[in-house]
Specification:
single chain, 317 residues, mainly alpha, 15 helices
Length: 317
């Protein structure tokens, strides 16, 4: 009897995970989680230097995903991805991307970093066109530009002058993340719990070694409760869970649609900052949020049909 119940539960879960509702829930989860990480990074930087903090974050995330893989009895040898995929993800998705973003946050206003990083969908459109043959339509590009304007309206307040070097670092981080998502799309069929942990571990060790060797760490501040809590949240939710969902989504939707999440994340970040960081959410922020929502909706008009078709095909298979 127990086996029958368990089999029915697995069947129902399989049907749900293959449905558009599951895709929407996972996409919303990514946006919500990554929308809160801006505040988490801000808190983390009060206790740990930039590169050291990023390295420890991914080492912890890797350990969490390895434990999850063991609990789910994932055969790591049988599902082992090609090493070049691990190396590329370690360098681009977790290495350059986060090291440069953390460093930029120490020298630029977080709002400016959010706007510059909002260029990621356009890098994805370009890389996807060349690497996987995805074509971004006119609605997609116009909608993304509108949403980027909304991000700028929300984030660019007051003096936005910045050091060109750190602006360039953020652009490189954005391009690196865009490339990584398209490269992963080419291998989206591989098991996430066999792919993400070694890539995170490799990047984490490299960044932690660099940071501990060249950055000055105040360990009294680093082990403060707020610093530890922020690091744990960024590792488990902002890295392990969010990147698992990201990989799962790339098995079901195109990389351009996934990249549009970068334009919605600042909206969540502003709301989180207002609720938990005692920041102000005014009329300008509301108008910017509406512009982002409208732009993303326009960009995803065709993508929603593609998601439903892909989900139906996955369910039939």
């Amino acid at each position: 009897m127990g086996n029958v119940i368990n089999a029915r539960r697995r069947h129902l879960w399989a049907r749900f995970s293959a449905s558009p509702a599951a895709t929407f829930a996972a996409y919303a989860g990514c946006v919500l989680i990554w929308g809160t990480t801006w505040l988490g990074i801000k808190v983390s930087l009060t206790g740990l230097p930039a590169v050291t903090g990023a390295g420890l974050r991914f080492m912890l995330a890797s350990g969490f995903l390895y434990m999850l893989g063991r609990l789910l009895r994932i055969d790591l040898r049988r599902n082992a991805p090609p090493f070049h995929l691990i190396a590329v993800l370690a360098l681009t998705m977790f290495g350059l991307n986060y090291a440069l973003t953390y460093v930029a946050e120490t020298h630029l206003a977080s709002g400016l970093v959010a706007v510059i990083f909002g260029t990621m969908p356009f890098f994805i459109f370009a890389f996807a066109h060349v690497m996987v043959g995805e074509r971004a339509g006119r609605n997609t590009i116009v909608g993304a530009l509108l949403a980027l304007g909304g991000v700028a309206m929300i984030s660019l307040v007051g003096d936005v002058r910045a050091d060109v070097l750190y602006v360039l670092a953020t652009l490189i981080a954005s391009a690196s993340s865009g490339f990584a998502n398209v490269y992963l799309k080419r291998f989206a069929h591989v098991e996430p719990l066999a792919t993400l942990p070694p890539a995170m571990l490799l990047a984490g060790i490299a960044m932690a070694a660099y940071g501990l060797g060249l950055e000055r760490t105040d360990w009294h501040r680093a082990i403060a409760p707020a610093s530890i809590a922020a690091l744990a949240y960024l590792a488990i939710f902002g890295s392990a869970i969010a990147f698992y969902l990201n990989h799962w989504l790339l098995q079901r939707i195109d990389s351009g649609t996934m990249g549009l999440s970068a334009l919605m994340i600042p909206v969540i970040a502003v709301v989180v900052g207002a609720v938990f960081g005692h920041e102000i959410f005014g009329l300008r922020d509301l108008l910017g949020a509406l512009l982002v929502i409208g732009g993303v909706w326009l960009s995803m008009t065709r993508s929603r049909e593609n998601v439903a078709a892909a989900a139906e095909a996955h369910l039939v298979a």
